[in-house]
């Protein structure tokens, strides 16, 4: 068994790279580390099923490491070092770095679901519409200053960007069909996305996707809904701006091409999307959740 430390030096504010994590992992008892930068590609081709891949980065970095682990059966360990770190929340990992490294040394393993957008793996969420703004409009400086709240800070830009009317789309959710105008579509594999927003009743190990759709509403009302959801862990009662479904498959057909992001990374423009869940597909180090 080999321990790999894969660090993305550009994640978050750059303070939690290999130099931050390596001495803490060594103090926890992991003394033989294969250290690589995420940008290198040789580590992906040399992984084996017995290896443990510890990735220090944000959700986009974790996504890349997860694809490599999924392909060969290796174990994924997450060292949260980005802006949102939603997949780490799904795993119930401790926030204290030293406690996390001690947990990693014990290596409690579980299997979690992964989502698929065609042949693209995702761990947290696929976004269309409003949810793509943090990836495409929030600057690295804004993310560093505001952290997870940069996801709310872009909401007032909706009117300037001409997105208040939303877009027309047909949703086929298992055996249900919904067709109207939407401001945002979010299809999540786990329980957290958007920097800590929690989807009630969802879990990364339940064998379902969670579809959260937002209807066009004034930006101040959506900001209020966002903040209340963050505080309470669920959407406000009697608020028809948000609809939640929990399918195993989902097909989205839009009248025009729209930008799509997965785990905070832009995938380009699509008119049709087919999404599904692959239950218990990835071995990961988990906390006491």
Automatic annotation (TrEMBL):
Superkingdom, taxonomy of origin: Bacteria
Gene3D superfamilies: 2.60.200.40, Probable inorganic polyphosphate/atp-NAD kinase, domain 1
Entry GO terms, CC: cytosol
SUPFAM superfamilies (alphabetical): NAD kinase/diacylglycerol kinase-like (SSF111331)
BP-aspect Gene Ontology terms: methylglyoxal biosynthetic process; phospholipid biosynthetic process
Record keyword Membrane present: no
Pfam families (UniProt xref): DAGK_cat, YegS_C
MF terms in GO: ATP binding; kinase activity; methylglyoxal synthase activity
Residue intervals of the DAGKc domain: 36-121
Keywords: Kinase, Transferase
Listed PANTHER family: METHYLGLYOXAL SYNTHASE (PTHR30492:SF0)
Name of protein: YegS/Rv2252/BmrU family lipid kinase
Lineage: Bacteria, Pseudomonadati, Pseudomonadota, Gammaproteobacteria, Oceanospirillales
